[in-house]
Amino acid sequence: MKERESVSRRKGKLLLVLGVFALLLFGTALTASAAVRQNGVKNKAVSISWDDPNEGMTYSRTTKYHLYAGTDRDHITIQRDLPATQRSITLTGLRAGEEYYVEITCDYDGSYNSYKDSYVGRVYAQTLPAKPAGLKVDYYSNYMTSVEYAWNTQDISGWQWVLRDAAGSTVDYGVMNYASSSPSVLSSKIKAKSIYTFQVRGFSKAYNSNTAVYGPWSDRSYFVPQPQLKGKKYTKVNGNGTLSVKWTKVKGADSYTVYVHTKAKGKYKKMATVKKNSVKLKNFKGKKFKNNKNYYIYVVANKKVGKAALKSPNPQYWYVRRSVY
């Protein structure tokens, strides 16, 4: 979030002190700070209202208001001159999920002098969050016990997120009551037995309000865990030269693909894609499997979502050798 102290606010405090001096010399005071309010959280817009700092004053009268707005006080991109009768305004055409610095000043006539651009007040006004974008799995553990999601930032008050399993049941959820330049969340409640979906939405708060106003949920981001070994004898070279492989089921997966290589690194050969959680491989590159030879195997789960074909990311291989069985 941006630094909340305003140069104009300090100027307003100075004017208030000088007002006492002016009252003694000229019989009228410089205008003091008056309230400026954000009227709710709006989509791509900011609505504010303010009080007349000279209302009820005998020797001073507001003649005009000035509005200055931008992403911060050093980057003012919007300026408006407003009549003295106007006490509110809605700025449209703004960006969703952005915070804007909005300051109001006024011109007014005193008993003996006229004053220009006197500070009235300011707000840091947030627009309604945009639909979160850029969701990705930023990290996951090799043992499939935790996963970290990241997404694009917005200049808002915070985030709400939820992680669900393949059945749609909530596995983990939370609220982040702060903004971050690189928002992310780590959940340690996953298992390799299910596909998961993650969603997040942002919320903004009107200035000086604790009420969260939520934006739209993101699209679902899928995480497809890698199947894990099943039992102690997860592989077996059979007497007929075939290789049997077993793994845990991943709920929500459409199929599984098995890859084999004779070295840990290098290009693995795609051997089979099956719907069940076991397979018997007949040969490797035209040759029967041998008990005295090492093989490296990994299995990925597959899931089709719309036109996207998803699979387990960066799978870990299993080292198959005679001593394993």
Taken from the alpha-carbon principal axes, the silhouette is rod-shaped
H/E element sequence = HEEEEEEEEEEEEEEEEEEEEEEE
The portion of residues assigned to helices is: under 10%
Structural class: mainly beta
Number of helices: 1
Give the count of structural domains: 3
Mean pLDDT: 86
CATH T-level topology of the largest domain: Immunoglobulin-like
Topology, number of strands: 23
Task: Give the name of the CATH superfamily of the largest domain.
Answer: Immunoglobulins
CATH class of the largest domain: Mainly Beta
Q: What percentage of amino acids are in beta strands?
A: 35-45%
The largest sheet is: 5 strands, antiparallel
First-to-last CA distance? 58 Å
Computed Rg = 32 Å
**Which CATH architecture of the largest domain?**
Sandwich
Q: Detail the poorly predicted runs.
A: 1-33
Structure description:
- It is a single chain.
- By secondary structure, the protein is mainly beta.
- It folds into 3 domains: 7-126, Sandwich (Immunoglobulin-like); 136-223, Immunoglobulins (Immunoglobulin-like, Sandwich); 235-324, Immunoglobulin-like.
- The protein has one helix at residues 7-26; strands at residues 36-38, 46-50, 61-70, 76-83, 88-91, 99-109, 114-126, 136-140, 147-150, 158-164, 170-176, 184-187, 196-205, 212-214, 221-223, 235-237, 243-246, 255-261, 269-274, 278-281, 295-305, 308-311, 318-320.
- The strands form 6 sheets. Strands 10, 11, 13, 14 and 15 form a 5-stranded antiparallel beta sheet that branches.
